[in-house]
Design goal:
The structure is a single chain. It is built from 16 helices and 25 strands. By secondary structure, it is of the alpha/beta class. The relative contact order is 0.09. Helices cover 28% and strands 24% of the residues. A hairpin with a 3-residue loop joins strand 23 and strand 24. The N and C termini lie far apart (77 Å). The chain binds adenosine-5'-diphosphate. The site of adenosine-5'-diphosphate has 22 residues, from strand 14, strand 19 and strand 20.
């Protein structure tokens, strides 16, 4: 006999409805750019998200339309993105740290019809408006009392909501319909849009919640110190609703004192951010003391996690989970949670594994291939281009930009070069464009940087390949010293001498005041390569 299961579309508003019904009192705490601390909960967030949905319908927005946000992590931003997707719209989180030209390009390219934005960004939006071709309504994420005088015709978020009922129904769309849109940072060429579907976001949230991924539950207090415009804050606002975790949001504040204070005051046990943020927090703790309260895990991704960072967190009783992923992967690919064999190793052996990027979560297939496209062995030694496949991995960019991005079998090339060992632990060797090609052999800029940040007094390190007459390219190391520390070339080279192969030793070390970063906080290697393209190494 034929039987079927029910057709229950995977829609993102089901996450927030579930949170409101089963975890309604669980808190969502946010700092805002008005300087307030707002204590909300999942029921209130859901009700207000429904008011956002109703307000958008009233403004004439239809399913499939893009609605942009230029906003920090706050309760209002969470309400907006659930409200936008909940009425069938596409929540386009714009990264405010992009250059003006890039913001204008992506808002016009996305054909955003409405822009929700924070007070901080009023000058930015006023400056860009003459060049924004599609935005019909500008909604300021604040109340009447904080509405500024402006050349723009501004709508007040709290007034829009007050006019609507919280009983408004959601819109049921196909689960494959778009729910969100995020552009890559565009270090090469124009940024490209990655459109997430309801289905991809819900499946991703279920995978991300699992014990061996983020291990989140109704008892978790989660603090994403990664902005919602950076790959959906790594999906935490979805996962927190799905699990009923308490959600802590720091608004515009990324400074170490605020982060430390929020971790302790709110009892966060899981916090997530890129390495730069954590390096800043640990330096702050070193200088000013104080603890980390109930924090027992930090999830770190976006760039490779240096061993020193894992060791310093261990000293505070905090375990590091390394994550690897990208905007194109919603963003999760691998997580460094230990398998039973690794968990049984002594601490040092465990750290060897935690410096790797980890194993794929269910829903991500991956393999490494050589120059001829043939699959390479999973032996932890062979390295090649890392290809991925799965239901939350991009199949094509928004509006077909970049053409066909998956091969005939559906594999997407991540642009990363990696090894995979017999246990499935993947380790990034480098981004394919950053690897240093010296005499036909490859030197990993990531490994060199990770080793260099362990040197006394070093705050941050970047390695690039510069032209060399004999070897084609040789590594140049740029380091930024910690405040008040003195760092010398000889000191750094001496420290590195027993940590890396001799032929990997940088040909020169420059101490610099600042290193350039991308809009998502990564080292901007393209800018460094441009700046030092004619640099003459002492060995040349
Ligand atoms: P961007 O817009 O800068 O590409 P993404 O966050 O999408 O922003 O960047 C994805 C890339 O970041 C990956 O392809 C990889 O090169 C790098 N990356 C992410 N996580 C890690 C990690 N844990 N270790 C090393 N590299 C990482």
């Amino acid at each position: 006999m034929h039987g079927t299961m029910q057709d229950w579309p995977l829609l993102v508003w089901k996450l927030i409805d579930h949170a409101a019904l089963y975890h309604g009192d669980r808190e969502v705490v946010a700092l805002t750019c008005e300087g307030d601390e707002v204590r909300s909960n999942w029921r209130t967030i859901r009700d207000r998200a429904r008011q956002v949905a109703a307000a958008l319908r009233r403004l004439g927005i239809a399913p499939g339309d893009r609605v942009a946000t230029l906003a920090w992590n706050t309760h209002r931003h969470v309400e907006s993105w659930y409200g936008i997707s909940g009425m069938g719209g596409v929540a386009h989180t714009i990264n405010p740290r992009l250059f003006d030209d890039q913001i204008v390009y992506i808002a016009n390219h996305a054909e955003d019809r409405v822009l929700f934005f924070d007070l901080t960004f009023v000058p930015l939006v006023e400056r860009l408006t003459p060049r924004l071709t599609s935005i019909e309504h500008f909604v300021l994420l604040t109340d009447r009392a904080h509405m500024p005088a402006s050349s723009l015709d501004l709508l007040c978020y709290e007034e829009l909501l007050a006019a609507e009922s919280a009983d408004t129904p959601w819109t049921t769309v196909d689960e494959n319909a778009p729910a969100g849109l995020c552009y890559t940072s565009g270090t090469t060429g124009n940024p490209k849009g990655v459109q997430y579907s309801h289905r991809s976001n819900v499946l991703h949230a279920m995978a991300a919640a699992a014990t061996d991924t983020f291990g989140m539950s109704a008892q978790t207090v989660v603090f994403p110190v990664v902005p919602m415009y950076h790959a959906n804050a790594w999906s935490i606002p979805y996962v927190a609703a799905l699990t009923g975790a308490k959600l802590v949001l720091a608004g515009p504040n990324f400074d170490p004192p605020t982060i430390q204070r929020m971790i302790v005051a709110e009892g966060a046990d899981l916090a997530l951010a890129v390495p730069t943020i954590w390096l800043g927090l640990l330096q702050h703790l070193e200088k000013h003391g104080g603890g980390l309260g109930r924090l027992n895990r930090t999830a770190i991704g976006g760039s490779a996690v240096p061993r020193a960072l894992i060791e310093q967190f261990a000293a505070h009783g905090v375990t590091v989970l390394q994550l690897w992923g990208m905007t194109e992967m919603s963003p999760l690919g691998t997580v460094g949670t230990p398998c039973a064999r690794v968990a049984a190793l002594p601490l040092d052996g465990q750290i060897d594994y935690r410096t790797k990027q980890g194993r794929a979560t269910f829903g991500v297939e991956m393999k490494i291939v050589g120059d001829d496209g043939g699959e390479l062995p999973r032996d932890g030694k062979a390295f090649g281009r890392l290809l991925v496949k799965g239901p939350w991995i991009v199949g094509s960019y928004f509006k077909g930009d970049g053409g066909q991005v998956t091969d005939a079998e559906g594999w997407f090339d991540t642009g990363d070069v990696a090894t995979i060992d017999a246990g499935g632990y993947m380790q990034i060797v480098d981004r394919s464009k950053d690897v240093i090609k010296s005499g036909g052999e490859w030197i990993s800029s990531i490994d060199l940087e990770n080793a260099a940040v362990g040197a006394p007094g070093v705050a941050e390190a970047a390695v690039i390949g510069v032209p060399h007459p004999k070897w084609d390219e040789r590594p140049l190391l740029l380091v930024r010293a910690k405040d008040g520390a003195t760092v010398t070339k000889a000191g750094v080279l001496d420290y590195l001498s027993d940590k890396i192969a001799k032929w990997w030793l940088p040909d020169d070390v420059l101490i610099v005041d600042e290193l350039p970063h991308t809009a998502t906080g990564k080292l901007l290697k393209t800018a460094l390569r441009e700046k030092y393209k004619d640099y003459r190494l002492p060995t040349a």
